[in-house]
Amino acid sequence: MELFEEKILLNDRLFVAKEEHFSFNDFPLHIHPEYELIYILKSSGTRYVGDHIDIFHARELCLFGPNLPHTFYNKHLPADREVHQFVIQFNEDFLGSGFFDRPQFNAIKSLFQTSLNGIRFSQKTMDDVDDKIRALVCDDEAQAVAGLISVLATLAQADDFEVLASQRQTSSSIKKDTARMNRIYHYLLDNFKEEITVQQMAAMANLSVPAFCRYFKAHTRKTLSDFINGLRVNYACQLLRLNDKTISQVCFESGYNNISYFNRQFKSITGTSPLVFRKRSA
Question: Among 231, 218, 234, which Cα is nearest to 187's?
Fold first, then answer.
């Protein structure tokens, strides 16, 4: 997955607000000088933000600061890849140079600073701004500007969020590390249903086993085993939504060879059993 710079065209607008629908997401890892607020209503797959990689599901709200490499990817999934999302992109000075330097906007200024590492907000915060974000896609720019300030003010007051990237990385440092992590990640995507050992992955990365474990956890915040289980369970969720396979078939097609272990891992990650998940998804 190559890193490239996206060119965002404002076309005399103060900021971009758009609602998007497409069949799957294969947009490459990218950067741009604008802030980006992305609200994903429908989709699941893998989230890349700086040195962070993790699985995401429907209803996801993130804020990315300028030139932070990011993307959401789900082309590798078997089904349910359709994407419905709102994307808001803006410069920090979209209301004029120094506008957010005023004391009354200290909380928003702090939000911008934190977003340099990427922020994922909670379900409660999403509920608080859901209608406001939808309303930003309109022809009345004055109304939209007021709405965006309101959204940012609400996000700035949130205290239940996750900072995604572990450190602020430049695009050059990301490019340098991208080739190695891409080899690792795409091998896992292509082979997660097979038996994969840490020794095998360490050799691929040209690292010792201890060095690989540190490297992998620094990028994903997970052990190799936990990450593979996440990929398998995410794949199993897609198969369960198809509703044409037995639980046993889903277990084996997702890379597990033991039903009991599959059930334990599935419940640990999703909070419910495969059977209950299928019923709720019907």
Answer: 231
